[in-house]
Amino acid sequence: MRVTVTGATGRLGGRLVHALTGRGDEVTVLSRDPERAKARLGDVEAQAWDPGSGPAPAAALAGRDAVVHLAGEDLAQRWSDDAKRRILESRELGTRNLVEGLRAADPRPAALVSASAVGWYGARGDERLDEDVPAGDDFPARVCEAWEREAALAGELGLRVVRLRTGVVLEAEGGALEKMLPPFKLGLGGPVAGGRQYVPWIHVDDVVGIYERAIDDPSWSGPVNATAPEPVTNRELSKALGRALRRPAIAPVPGFAVKLLYGEMATLVIAGQRAVPRRALEWGYEFRHPELDEALRSVLR
């Protein structure tokens, strides 16, 4: 396969690129700093592209079996007005500029696999959320809606478009779990804001596996929840992490404390989504880590 990847130097991008090159795929990455990307990723071609500055280079997209779009401003920061503008623009304008590059590519790629997030659904309590549920109306939902709308326009160019709504990725370095580990290792961890909100977790190996399947399988298209088959509540996740670390996990963290620490971004922790991967399961994806306890042991091993 010939695959072009944006956002390849991020945590997920790096893992995906190494998985693709490891199976023999020819990978091109688009990066603001191509030399840094090559130094980090090894055996790849790297070309320069700033997603906010203009169309992606058509030559880096032409004739590819798939383009994977991961580039975007990190959500894990305090959402000042300026940060919210950067988060939205990086996804909306960045994806629009990628599609403009796809429009100019000759021949055009076969598929676009674009990142999205379970934030699409907004705060929906304990409602089970499959891919047919419409977007919510909070800030993350509006960002995801704009992001997916721009990506879907590639379908008008004849590309197969897959939009992967990723949940909370379990990995040892980076992401939510890395922030949880220090207090839990000290025996000071516990449920957040009552712990009743659902956490749509997924092992990082399965995120990579779902991206590979979306690249490879021509029957995959549209939105796909990249989450484990059974989401758990924050309380259940806390207990499971305590078991994995052999530490107590009974120290509650009040919601107001999370809001003081993270501001509006605290909604990502306090609200949660009970997202389920209906389409991935229907289309035959076999999860490598479907059970939470085993997934945590794998990540922490």
**What is the rounded Rg?**
19 Å
Q: Which whole number gives the mean pLDDT?
A: 95
Give the helix proportion (percent range). 25-40%
User: Which structural class do you get from the secondary structure elements?
Assistant: alpha/beta
Which consecutive residue ranges, at least 5 long each, have pLDDT under 50? none
Strand content: 15-25%
| Oligomeric category | single chain
Report the total helices: 11
Largest sheet: 7 strands, parallel
Write the element-wise H/E pattern from the N-terminal end onward: EHEHEEHEEHEEHEEHEEHHHEHH
Shape type: globular
What would the keywords be for this entry?
alpha/beta, seven-stranded parallel sheet, two-stranded parallel ribbon, globular
Can you tell me about this structure?
By secondary structure, the protein is of the alpha/beta class. The protein is 40% helix and 17% strand. The strands form four sheets. Strands 3-2-1-4-5-7-11 form a seven-stranded parallel beta sheet, sandwiched between helices. Strands 6-13 form a two-stranded parallel ribbon. Strands 8-10 form a two-stranded parallel sheet. α1 (11-22) packs across α6 (204-216), α3 runs parallel beside α4 and α7 (234-245) crosses α11 (292-300). The longest helix has 24 residues, at 81-104. It is globular and about 60 Å long. The mean pLDDT is 95.
